[in-house]
Amino acid sequence: MRDLTRPLRECLAAMDDKHNLQEVLRRYPADRDELIALLRLSIDLGGLEAPAADPAFRLRARNRMLAAAAQRRQARRWNPLAALPRPVVRLAYAGALAAALLIGGLTAASASDNSLPGDPLYGVKLGVERARLATTFDSAARARLELQFADVRLAEAQRLFAAGRVQEGVRGMAEYDTAVAQFNRSIAGSTLDTRAVDELSRVLDERAARADASLKELAGSLAAGGDTEAAAAVARAQSHVEQAWSGSKRDLQSRGSASQPGHQTKPAAGQP
Known about the structure:
Layout (H helix, E strand, L loop, with lengths): L4 H12 L4 H6 L5 H15 L8 H20 L11 H26 L10 H13 L4 H24 L3 H23 L5 H31 L3 H31 L14
Helix pairs in contact: 3-6, 7-8, 7-9, 8-10, 9-10
């Protein structure tokens, strides 16, 4: 197994100093995939909060510690780690700790998938999303991720409204609006090839139609239930989102037309 300590340290330093991470990865093409996986793990673990200790668990741990201390006093047993050099012992402990953190991090990330704003694991959910975006360097793949996360924000808002958490649902609609606007900005600032333009155009048409139907149904349901303010907030978000969708569609259509063979720019009025 190759020693990735130095390249991983360079990658982490580039992220901390906000340098070009992709340039660092280019220096290690053979280890690129493994380095990206390690960076994702580092970001995921960094966003985890320390879990609250269970009182019963603390009592059991205390009793076990006292029992182990008494047993050591009664009979000193040979410890195989004591015969190893100190650096090796430290490495063994570090490996065990890393494995425990990895298992705990993956469990928390999986459990956070269905969390909503205000839930204990919602911060983990957002941290995982940020980690995926931070380690996605292809412009088209990043745009698809942003579109996917915008769908997640809309689904969260719908669930909040359905659970009677109306004010949180209104804030969720604002988050959805912001996510769509971010996707629109990414499209405008990205370099995309013809295949990516065609794929994103198709996906965008599907998502826009589905979101428009969902928002109209949600606004109608809230208005019928007498919650006119929430219905108005959903309608405003729908108007903003439609404008963002339209801008993204125009951008993609113009790129698709420009990339077609034989495309010529139309002369301005009055020119031959």
